[in-house]
Amino acid sequence: MKITRVYISVALLAWAATSRAAPVTFSDGVFSNANWTAQKLLNGTFSSFQVASGGNPGEFRETDHLSLNTGQSIFVVNLRTSAVYNPTVSGAISSIDISFDAKFLGGSTGTSQMSFRLAFEQNGSIFVPLTIGTAQGPGNGQPGTTFQSFSFSGFTAADFTKLSGSGSLDFSSSGAPITFGYMTDDTVNLDNAFVKGGIDNWVVTVHPLPIGGNPDDLFEADSGSGIIYKFTPAGTKTTFASGINGAAGGAFDASGNLFVTELNTGTIYKFSRTGTKTTFATGLNGPGGVAFDAAGNLFEGDSTGGTITKITPAGTKTTFASGLNGPGGIAFDSSGNLFEPDQFSGLIYKFAPAGTRTTFASLLQRPIALAFDRAGNLFESDRNSGNVFKFTPVGSKSTFASGLNRPVGLAFDSGGNLFVADQSTGTIYKFTPGGTKTTFATGLSGPEGLAIRPGQLTNISTRLEVLSGNSVLIAGFIISGTDNKEVLLRSLGPTLTQFGVVGALADTTIELHNGAGAIIATNDNWKDTQQAAIMATGKAPPNGLESAILITLAPGSYTLVVRGKNGLTGVALAEVYDLDQTVDATLTNISTRGFVETGVNVMIGGLISSSGNIRILARTLGPTLSQFGVPNVLSDPTLELHDANGALIASNDNWRDTQQATIMSTGKAPPNDLESAIVIMKPAGSGTAIVRGKNNTTGNALLEVYTLPPGP
């Protein structure tokens, strides 16, 4: 549908970088000839040099092309000699951003056009993104009147094409150094045609992979060595932590922290995304398997004590179940029921959220670990029989894999592949959804618990018509954790017209409020303050009348308010970017409040997550807002979720109609039965949430997105 397609176009323009460590930025606005080299890849002749004045402002770099034959383009690559990123020192590359100002300086009448794009050299070869991220001049030989600003974000290795040389592209931590610059190319239709262009304020930002790993990385508790190993999806192994006395089980919370059980000391450790280790719980009796419920409580099976302990995020312990016979690797289904493999009785127990116990399966041979796939099927590693059994939601049993030697830990990745730790052979096997078996890792020492790092929200945006009074665009977000977090907040208005949005807000302003409601930062036009710093992020608004704030915030709740300058109204896009995922802090809840109209002016929320699946709760409130003094509330909201291609993947009118038990298990069910909610495992990339009024009603509504712990 049109409104979905418009949003996705904007989201791709401002695509958020994937999870990363501290970014590394290279920039130049002076362009001394001594700092740049240039080379021609195809045809004709060229020159490239510094111009002392006329830039944006001051100096800029000009490149001139002269094509000798009709239709033969010239490719000229300019490299900044000191803009060198070394992956072996600074880490493997997750993504790359570029921003610059460009101006077409003229050319042969009726024939010429110059393009600018990112370029770099690695292993003696030149690489460029040929199909995306191109800034073009007006052509027809006519010079541009001013420099125009361009910004392209989120380039990954898959976006680049090799133009010259025999070396290969390598963004891994063993890759060769990379020298960054830009490339100009042209379109000419005459012999001896010329074309000229200039570039200024060139900025390239490299986003390394995070210290604590990427989504879909596999973490393995190696009981014999006391090491927690991290494996990339390709199988590259590194040591994440060591010195664990009986490493047994592991689980990730919604913020990406890894919790590991130390069997021999009765301890559970918490490892932040940065790898910082703290003690989360002590005094347990043989802690083994762990799992999080949808509300963020950690459940732990005491293999020696025969109990299951519930531990709140604050660390408060209570006994959830007792009288068990060797509880192993526990797991939750999507409705919040806890399943426990009772090793020495050969049973699998099912516990309702309130603690009521029933027997789900029997006659097993030391069931030791469980995992659910996305379809709700339960997989069980049967240690003594060497099998992995599959149980449907109603309990029908079948053999998924056999011939293993003490299978223990189980974990699913975002593609539905099952990883099995084979303890006696020191091997991890990978099984496709169809059951095809391959060896993923060998040479381990008693592998036990497995855990897959989940995805993470890296950007949220909302497109809505900004009115006045209580019907401006209000975006809220919560930063959880212990460290401060750098974020970029921005609003777009005029830029939306490039994507077919009618009635875009001509001049935006933004205010940032803290949890007490006090204004802590404001901006009208983003170039008025912080221009250089905002440009260095690679996410500067394309239009000078749009707004942005770059700020480091302490954990807490915040509100971003978007208004039209001098009371203007129109459609605007509000965005929140997480710029630093190296710290122990995450965006865990993001919301938007505004006036929902009809047609193309419904509320459109965009979500971008890094690679790997992420489990989220999306909900929209209408009637509840009246309790907080909000006038003209939307009496009956509906909610739709669309994928990156605009296809509808889930919808809801009244939240109790579907997923009632699942939504209630999160502790975040809407207060009013006419309000909407959806729990879904969101795949990597962009997606869209659309809020409408039932039967085309209008009013103020609140859209919220919560990150949940991993689950089916």
Radius of gyration: 28 Å
Overall 3D shape? globular
End-to-end distance: 29 Å
Low-confidence stretches: 1-20
Helix content: under 10%
Major sheet attributes: 8 strands, antiparallel
Strand content: over 45%
Describe it for me?
Helix content is 4%, strand content 50%. The strands form 10 sheets. It has an 8-stranded antiparallel beta sheet, with helices on one face. The model is unreliable at 1-20 (pLDDT under 50). It folds into 3 domains: 2-7 and 457-707, Jelly Rolls (Sandwich); 22-208, Jelly Rolls; 218-452, TolB, C-terminal domain (Neuraminidase, 6 Propeller). A hairpin with a 4-residue loop joins strand 34 and strand 35 (427-431). It is built from 4 helices and 53 strands. The relative contact order is 0.12. It is mainly β. The longest helix is centred in the N-terminal third of the chain and has 12 residues, at 2-13.
